[in-house]
Amino acid sequence: MALFLPDANVVIHALREASPEHAACRSWLTRAAEAGDEIGLCELVEVALLRIPSLPKLQLVPMNEILGYWKEDLWAYSKTRRLTAGKRHPGLVADFITTLDLCGNDINDVWLAALAIEHRATLVSTDQGFARFPGLSWINPAAL
Length: 144
What we know:
The protein is an alpha/beta fold. The chain contains 6 helices and 5 strands. It has helices at about 10-15, 20-35, 45-50, 65-75, 90-100, 105-120, and strands spanning about 5, 40, 80, 120-125, 140. Strands 3-2-1-4-5 form a 5-stranded parallel β-sheet.
């Protein structure tokens, strides 16, 4: 049994049927659940799930569908658990920022990469930028 930490883009693609990556991300989530794998969620990803598809300028998904998916799909799965930063997290974050010379919008990725490493989870993202983090196990469901 594996522990996976999906990035916000994976859960948003899995929710949004019009997304080109919808089938791949939804299928990956379904396969992970059928295999009995654990899904780790963190507040950073959950807030992005609630925020991005509901932005008025994007109007991707109605809020009631987002809330249902968040509560009734992701958190209703018995092997979903919350991942939080622990004692190693500040050091991992600082090391990535310093050694990779990252700032600004890259900080969300740094945070998720460090969280996945700390929890020995595989990060799941359609963002190829995660390849830059040494020691990170990650997969792209759209490339499987």
